Amino acid sequence: MFKKIRVRFPDISVFLVFLVLIALLPIVLLATPFFLISARRQEKALEEEYKKFLLAHEGSEIFCYTNRGNSVNLIGEFVLPQLPKGTHIVKLEGKKVCTNLNENYISFMLYQLNEVGFPNVIKISNGSIVDLSLKKKVYSAINQSKVETLSGIVISGLNHVRESARNA
Question: Could you read off the pLDDT of 48-83 as tens digits, one per residue?
Fold first, then answer.
């Protein structure tokens, strides 16, 4: 029976798909504003929670680096042991954030950076962040085989964001 219908109306499946889409269109149009409002509320809630996170971690300093092959071992050997006590460490493994802090807020923070590039040092001050990318300096030192200067570069970067936070 269906074979006969298909022979008579070869484009019936296209027609049926078209009818289903037309039938669903009003539902989609009515539901879209609710989804947009819900998404915006979730975004606002995240922003509010992020602000609370910043205030709770006022004065904190963060060193952020990636698992890039030519630097991860050098940073682990020369930089991490020399960081001041209390400096939070954030390691990015691809898009995964590895830290002892709340990963969602740190991820949100990383999207707010003014200077994109890793390694990066961040200071939380007055409910906002001050950051500095150390990418050029660190990779220049690595390429010139001056790995013993890496900890000095990071400490200098931390001093820079501290000063910038004081002046902000």
Answer: 999 999 999 999 999 999 988 888 889 988 899 999
Kindly compute the dihedral angle of the four CA atoms of residues 164, 59, 72, 114, in this order, to the nearest 10 degrees: -40
Q: Show the domain range for 63.
A: 58-167
Question: pTM (2 decimals)?
Answer: 0.75
Angle at 77 between CA 74 and CA 78, to 5 degrees: 80
What is the β-pairing status of strands 128-133 and 96-98?
Answer: unpaired
| Contact yes or no for 126/168 (Cβ under 8 A) | yes
Whether residues 29 and 72 share a domain: the answer is: no
Nearest CA among 69, 31, 61, 38 for reference residue 132: 61
- What's the rounded Cα separation, in Å, for the pair 4 and 114? 66
Q: Which of 164, 162, 163 lies closest to 59, judged by CA?
A: 162
Count structural domains, the chain.
2
Q: Give the three-state DSSP class for 92.
A: strand
Decide: 94 and 69 in contact? Cβ < 8 Å.
no
